[in-house]
Amino acid sequence: MPSTATTGQKKQNARQVLASGTPRHYRSDDRIVGVRGSSGGYLKQALADGSSTAAEELIALAAAHTDDAPLYCHLLVTVPPPSLMPALLADPHRSVEVVRAVAALLGTHRSPERGEVNAAIMWLITIAQQAAQAGELDLLEESCHGAFGWDALWDQWAPQREVTPWLGTVTGDVASSVAATLRQHPECAGHFRHLADDVRVDHRIRAAVSRT
């Protein structure tokens, strides 16, 4: 695990990359944040209860408030991604903004805990996997960008155990997109260096992780 000082330096540098194109600070109006959080909590429960519209309403709420860290970090990433995928895939451009905000806002309202970083990485990776299956490469790349960026900062072993077998299965355009994103995050790619000599892994993934 990296030292605290090293993590602090990496976090300061990497957040500029993760937050590219996204507001870095959530609005400090507690009333507004409270209303959004209440609405989001209601929609999360409605989604769990089988609502056919709650996923779309929750993603629309998030997309309209990409500066609201509590809405994203305390609520959205606790919703199982499969239940959100129909709404995310219905408007991939909007969804790119949402997943970008997840990565950018984590840690902006307070220092994140390791479990929260784990949860955010796994949420983003699950979105990436679903996007790959649907052929939505922009959403795939943005989700990987966020997940790999935070893994580079925190060296999260639990998500790495989940990501490793997935990296061994991607092919074609998906492999190209994932490999390109890994190259943007060499410290994350280094966590998967053991795949470089595995002939079963797509050559683009092997090349991306072997350059670290």
Question: What is the approximate shape?
Answer: globular
What is the radius of gyration? Answer: 17 Å
**What are the segments in which pLDDT stays under 50 over at least 5 consecutive residues?**
1-5, 13-17, 19-35
Element pattern in H and E: HHHHHHHHHHHH
The helix content is over 70%
Q: List the total number of helices.
A: 12
Assign the structural class, choosing from mainly alpha, mainly beta, alpha/beta, alpha+beta, or little secondary structure.
mainly alpha
Q: Approximately what portion of the residues adopt beta-strand conformation? A: under 5%
> Termini, distance in Å?
17 Å
Biggest sheet, in brief?
none
Mean pLDDT value: 84
Using DSSP, what is the number of strands? 0
Quickly list its features.
212 residues, mainly alpha, disordered N terminus
In short:
The chain has twelve helices and no strands.
Could you walk me through the main structural features you see in this protein, from its secondary elements to its overall organization?
Helices cover 72% and strands 0% of the residues. The protein has twelve helices and no strands. It has helices at residues 4-18, 30-48, 54-64, 69-75, 81-90, 92-105, 114-134, 137-154, 157-167, 172-184, 186-190, 203-210. It is globular. The protein starts with a helix and ends with a helix. Mean pLDDT is 84; it is low at 1-5, 13-17 and 19-35.
